[in-house]
Structure formats: structure tokens, C-alpha cells
Amino acid sequence: MDIIVCAKNVPDVAEADLNISDKGTDIDKEDLVFGINDWDNYAIEEAVLLKEKYGGTVTAITVGSEDDEEVLRRCLAMGADTAIRIDVDGISRFDSFVISKILSRVVKDLQFDLIFTGVLAEDDYCGMVGMMMAEELNINHANMITALEIEDGKARTTSELEGGLGEVSLIELPALLTIQTGINEPRYVSILGIRKAAKKELKTIELPDLGISDEELSPRTIIEEAFLPPETEGAEILAGNPDKISSDLIEILKKKGVME
Amino acid sequence: MDFNLTKEQQDIQRAAREFALGEFPERAQEFDRDETFDLDIWRKACELGFVGVFIDEAHEGAGLGFFEHCLIVEEFWAVDAGIANAIITASFGAEMLGMFATEEQKNKYLSPIPKGEAIMGTAITEPDAGSDVTCATTSAVRDGDEYIINGTKMFTTNGSIANYLLVFCQTDPDNPDRHQRHSFFIVETDRAGYEANKIHGKLGIRANDTAEVSLVNVRVPASNLVGQEGKGFKNLMDFFNVTRLHICAMAVGIARAALEESVAHIKKRHQFGVPLASFQINQFKIAEMATKIRAARNLYYEAAWLADKGKIDHGLVAMAKWFSGEMAVRCADEALQMHGGYGYIDEYKVQRIYRDAKIVEIYEGTKEIEKIIVANSILG
Ligand SMILES: Cc1cc2nc3c(=O)[nH]c(=O)nc-3n(C[C@H](O)[C@H](O)[C@H](O)COP(=O)(O)OP(=O)(O)OC[C@H]3O[C@@H](n4cnc5c(N)ncnc54)[C@H](O)[C@@H]3O)c2cc1C
Ligand SMILES: Cc1cc2nc3c(=O)[nH]c(=O)nc-3n(C[C@H](O)[C@H](O)[C@H](O)COP(=O)(O)OP(=O)(O)OC[C@H]3O[C@@H](n4cnc5c(N)ncnc54)[C@H](O)[C@@H]3O)c2cc1C
Predict the structure, then answer these.
(1) How many beta-carbon contacts under 8 Å exist across A and B?
(2) Residues B50-103: pLDDT tens digits?
(3) B333 in helix, strand or coil?
(4) Domain presence at residue B2
(5) Which of chain B's residues have a Cβ under 8 Å away from the Cβ of A191?
(6) How far is the CA of B341 from the centre of ligand 2 (A)?
(7) Residue among A70, A73, A190 minimizing CB distance to B49
(8) Do residues B222 and B147 touch, judged by C-beta distance below 8 A?
(9) Which domain covers residue A23, as residue numbers?
(10) Which one of A254, B52, B264, B363 is most buried, by most CB atoms within 10 A?
(11) ipTM for the predicted complex
């Protein structure tokens, strides 16, 4: 089982104070802490688990700058065999379309049974790269995978649907699956893993060497403006004794449709 | 001069942080309140290779430097000091084995440490021998192929849970040079005559075991002598020159936690209609904390970097130790102050930080002793 995992280095925006960058079309990422996209962490874990079970290889790929290599070293430390970085100076200028074109171009020359991407990336929440790659490569695909088994060279996948429903499919390989968080419990990176990673191949490909046309490298999505959510009216403070406060609260929650 | 960590060091730092954040926060308050620990966390840390990274590969370690060990210690302490210590002190003494033990001793006592098969400790302090270790009177008397050990050790980290300890004993009480009277022995804790009493009621690092150890006619084979007889004091100084560095890492780690808690609190809490962070007095506290943390870290980075190159700078190590210790206690104090009344309550992490921080000014050389070393290194 040869598996390719596409992983992205993303800023941690959950707790950070965000500012709009000078250009006004993105957030300022200068002072943010970067790390592997959460979904990709599950994807690499799933790939390594399959490798441990069935043998084969795991290759991790990222489109990014030298700083983003950290994500690939992590994948190698978790058990990937090789890693490839397509060198670009900051991926902000690319949209899902361009990134999927680049990744597909690289993947085409590789041997694989499965390609994993995360469902989403925490930075832009587009959720398109996986599907666009599958279309570009013209291979089977399934989204939001919460469980995966291999049966007679096919993938038995469970996709998460609205309202907690699950959909089970049997998919011919090669296939692309977008991996949902919670599918497994990603391992911690170990010191031994880090030491081994240092000896594994981490290849860099220059973007121009891929021979992708300028047309295909031009984003299809143009961000005109990025803005912080406008400040809304201040919170309503409920007053009175605990009994009154709790009944008032329940009243409000019912009115807003949160409670029945 | 290059102030960047190598990629590998950055990865180690990140891995340690992730492990600590994943495992410590949920249990920290429980262990602190109950003075307990769950050894499964230590086992997990060993499986991942975080314990004893400085031990050579031939003895199951990662063969990294003490600098890398410090990076791990700092990240662990930045999340929770008690749990951090419960894990990393399992190798306290391995530094000495690495330096002075025979190959046979290393195979027997060093190799199990990184694998998580044994916990060790080092017992130097006695009721009447603290800062002045030369006063230690625990005696080891040769009897045929054995030594008979008698005495009491105070504040021994891991004393009641360790598999074995390095014990600092007097072997030549009449030697005119008080620096040649002592020697180190491995003492297995299951030997007859060994008894440990856990010390309760510690101010901080309560997840980490500390015990009073009594040794009554404990017999150990002569092969348990580590290093040369009479060289105990000298070996101890070499040992401290390395281990004091990880105390600096502890200090920087906990000071970072103090800063982090402070920033979050003063940005969130409003008084007089504005966030506490808008008052210049609080801003200055943050500025001072951040500066001191950086300064302490640079001091210990330099000292540890030199140590790994085999160039121990005794005075520099002592500078780093007292400065980082005092800095950590100061940061913890200011952090609590900025929390007002809430900081006084143990539901707030800053209260534990305040209590945990103090130890770094005390163990492995009080800050006063460190200053004596610094002064001696200058005045001669
Ligand atoms: C939680 C904890 C864990 C510990 N773990 C270990 C361990 O694993 N192994 C071990 O051997 N020990 C351990 N210790 C002991 C620790 O190293 C000692 O407490 C420390 O060295 C100080 O010794 P003391 O407590 O006897 O204080 P004292 O030596 O009595 O010092 C008291 C005060 O007097 C000052 N003082 C002493 N001499 C001088 C001087 N000449 N000039 C100026 N000031 C001076 C000191 O700086 C200090 O402020 C631990 C202690 C604690 C609290
Ligand atoms: C054990 C205990 C007993 C207590 N008993 C009583 C009691 O009996 N009755 C009672 O009413 N209260 C009591 N208190 C509450 C105590 O008086 C308050 O905690 C104290 O006044 C600080 O208020 P605070 O905790 O809200 O901190 P905050 O007001 O939030 O202050 C937090 C930090 O911000 C600083 N700060 C705030 N405003 C400014 C400013 N304008 N400029 C610069 N710095 C500023 C403060 O100095 C502090 O460092 C008690 C508290 C404790 C812990």
C-alpha cells in the first residue's frame, strides 16, 4: 500500500489576536505560531497506521517555503518514508485551484494506491484541494472519512454526513480520500522519530521545473478584502437572584431556538 | 554567532511541548492537591524518548546533548512543574553515571533509565549537611567485598519510588582535605536497611516525590562504588556543573508560564472601565518579565552549549543558575500580583506557578551559594 499525504503548515489562529495585513486582503501572519494543519495530522497518522498494517510506503508532500518544511519533518518523524516540498515563497498568493494543480502534477509521477488530504485547512477553511486533485487526476474519491479499512485491494470508507449520519462506500483504488479529524488518535512525535527523520529523504522541487503553465498557476479566486468581524452590541447582563437569572436565560435560549 | 536552534532542536522542542500540553494540564491540579502522580505518564514519556536524551546510544539514550535535555525540561516546566519533575528527575544521577561509572555499571544502571525500566535519584543532602556538602556524615565502611552504609539523607528526590540511588558517603573521615573524604555508591532501594519516608506538605512540585532516607547497616557490593574512592566531592562538582543547567531550564520554563498566564489575564480583565493591560504599571511588569526570561535563557543556552562542547565554565553556570532562579520567582510573584485576589486561589494556575517556582532558588545550590561561586570565579 503506497500512500501519499498532502500536508500544510498553517498558523494557529484559534487563540491569537488577529490583524488585517497592510494589503487588506489577508490576516497578518508575521507573529503567529505555525504548525501542521490539524486535519493533516490525522491524515498522516492514518497513512502510517495503514503502512504498519499492510506495509508499503508513505510520502508526505507540501507546497511551501523552507519554513514549512517543519511539517514534512514532522510527517517523517511520525513514520513517513520520504517527503517532497515544492518550493514556493509563501502560498498565500495561491488558491485551492493552483495548489491542487501543483500537487497533482507532482503526484502524477509517483506510485500510489491512496492519496490523503485533510478535509479542510485551518487557515482558509476552503476544503477544496482534495476534491480538485481527484478531479485533476481523474481518480475515485470520497470526503470526510471517519473510518477506513482495506478489503481485497478496495477501500471501505465511512464518510460523515449531516447530522452524524455515516455513509459507507467500497471504493476501487487508486483513490483520494479527505480525512476527517477523529478518525484516529494521532501519535506524539518521539525523539527517536525525530532522529530517524533526519536520515530520511526530504526532496525539494522548484516550481518552474514542474512545467506548469502560467495560466494554470493563476488563482481563480481573487480576495478583494479581508476584515475582522464587526463589533456587535455588548452582551446582555441578566440581573436578579439565581432563580430569576436561570429562568430568564432559559426563556432567551428558547426564543433563539437553542432549546425546545 | 548564530542564535537559531537547529531544525532537530526545534523539532525536539515542539515535540516536548506537544506532549506536555497533551498530557499535563488535565492532571496537574489533582497531583498538586493530592501529592500524587500517575507513573503511566512517565512511562509514556520514556517510550517517546524524552527521559535521559543525553545518555549515549549504547546505553539506550538518544545520544544528544545536555542542551537538548534542557530544551525538553523547559517545555515541560512551561506546562506544569510538578509533572515535569516527576518525569525528568527519573534520570537524576544518570549524568554522573555517564561521566564516572564503569561500562558494567552503565549497562546495569544507566540503560534502564531511558527505557522507563527504572527510576533513580541522587542523595547528597543530610539534616546537617545542606549547602556545605562536605559535612555529610553518612558513612560507607569497607568490609571485605562490601561496604556497609549508615546515615540519613534529607530531601531525596524520588527517595520513596526509585529503584536505586547514588548516595554521597563519607569513606575517609580523617583525611585532612575535606574534599577528599567522600565517595559515591549505588544503593538499590530494596536492600535490607533502606527506608524512605515520603515528605508531605511541600510548597510546590508536589507531584514529584521527595523523601527522607534512612540507611541502617545497608550492605552493598564494592562494585557499587561509582568513580574513584575519595573523589566524591570532585565528581559532585562536575555533576552539578551539568545538572544546574537544567535547573535554569526549569526556571525559564516556569517564568514563561507566569508570563503567559499574566498576558491572558490582564488582557481579559477590566477594572476602571479598561483592561488591566492598559495600565502602564502592568505593561512594565510584562516588559520586565519578557526581558528577564530572554536574558536568563540566553545565559543558560550559552552555558549549556559550552558544556556540550566539553568546555565547562563554572562561573557562567553559577551565574545562569542564580539569575534564572531569582528571575523565575520574581516573575511568578508579579504574575500572581496581576491576578489580584484570584491569583491567591488554587483554581488559578498562577497560584501553583507561584508555589512551584521557589524551588529553583534552592535545590542544586541555593542562589547564595551560586553567588559565592560567581564571586570566587572573579575574585579568585
Ligand atoms: C523539593 C526538594 C528536592 C530536593 N532534592 C534533592 C535531591 O534529590 N538530592 C539532594 O541531595 N538534595 C535535594 N534537595 C536538597 C537541597 O539541595 C538543599 O535543600 C539545598 O542544597 C540547601 O540546603 P539546606 O536545605 O540544608 O539549606 P542550608 O544549607 O541550611 O541553607 C539555608 C540558607 O542559608 C544560606 N547559606 C548557607 N550557607 C551559606 C553561606 N556560606 N553563605 C551565605 N548563605 C549561606 C543558603 O543559601 C540558604 O538560603 C532537595 C530539596 C528540596 C526542597
Ligand atoms: C484571601 C482573601 C480575602 C479577601 N477578603 C476580602 C473581604 O473580606 N472583603 C472584600 O470585599 N474583599 C476581600 N478580598 C478581595 C481583595 O480585596 C481583592 O482581591 C483586591 O482588592 C484586588 O482586587 P481583584 O482581585 O479584583 O484584582 P484586580 O482589581 O483585578 O487587580 C489585578 C491587578 O491589576 C492591578 N490594577 C488594578 N487596577 C489598576 C490601576 N488602575 N492601575 C494599576 N494597576 C491596577 C492591581 O494592582 C492588581 O495587580 C479578599 C481577597 C482574598 C484573596
Answers:
(1) 45
(2) 999 999 999 999 999 999 999 999 999 999 999 999 999 999 999 999 999 999
(3) helix
(4) no
(5) 12, 15, 48-50, 53, 62, 64
(6) 5
(7) A190
(8) yes
(9) 3-210
(10) B52
(11) 0.91
Q: Cell numbers at residue A130, please?
A: 482534495
Tell me whether residue B262 is in a domain: yes
Residue of A nearest to B61 (CA): A192
Distance CA A126, CA A130 (A): 10
Residues in B closer than 8 angstroms to A35, CB to CB, are 14
The packing angle between helices B232-268 and B314-338, to 10°, is 30
- The grid coordinates listed for B224 are 557499587
Question: Does the beta carbon of B283 lie inside 6 Å of ligand 2?
Answer: no
C-alpha cell at A219: 488563482
For residue B170, the domain's CATH number is: 2.40.110.10
Chain B residues with beta carbon closer than 8 angstroms to that of A198? 8
How far is the alpha carbon of B234 from chain A, nearest alpha carbon, in Å?
33
Angstrom distance (rounded) from CA B100 to CA B109? 12
Count of CA atoms in the C-beta half-sphere (13 A) of A260: 0
Last-in-domain residue among B110, B129, B151: B110
The verdict on a CB contact (< 8 Å) between B12 and A191 is: yes
Q: What is the largest CA-CA distance in chain B?
A: 79
Q: pTM for the complete prediction?
A: 0.93
Residue A83: give its domain's CATH number.
3.40.50.620
Same domain, B35 and B170: no
Do B102 and B176 share a domain, yes or no? no
- Under a CB-based contact definition with an 8 Å cutoff, are residues A116 and A3 in contact? yes
**Chain A interface mutation, best of B4, B8, B11, B68, highest count of A Cβ atoms under 10 Å:** B11
Beta bridge partners of B129: B126
**A42 grid coordinates:** 490525522
B338 lines ligand 2 (CB under 6 A): yes
Full domain range(s) for residue B201 = 120-230
Residue A232 lies in a domain: no
Q: Which of B230, B259, B289 is the last residue of a domain?
A: B230
Is A54 within the bounds of a domain? yes
CB within 8 Å: B11 and A77: yes
pLDDT tens-digit profile of A42-89?
999 999 999 999 999 999 999 999 999 999 999 999 999 999 999 997
